[in-house]
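Researcher: Next entry in the queue.
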Amino acid sequence: MRNYRALTRVFQLFWPQLLATVFGIGALVTLLFLVNVRSATAWEKTLSGVLAAVGLSLAGLTGTLKNAGQALTKRLRQDAYTDLVALAVQTAPTPPDKSALQKAIGHRVLTPATPN
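Model: Structure for this entry, 116 residues:
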């Protein structure tokens, strides 16, 4: 990444997903440690495995949903702006009343012709 501000923006937008990923990886490392230790009970291994699966799945799912939601919001914003521009282009200003038009024509001064 060239710009560190982009990275801080990613952390601001996706901090729950990053937190869930770190939690899931921590639970997975704990599970791997407990599998190699003989004194660990079955419920500790099961709990660590469930927490790892839930943490990693939750991070991936919420990241995907947030990304899809942001893409949908961007598309809706573009469509709304397109509709507003089309409406603004199609809307003609109100024509001036005849008396104001005649008054403007009466105040107009003719300029002398310029030589070519």
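Model: The radius of gyration is 33 Å.
Researcher: Noted, moving on.
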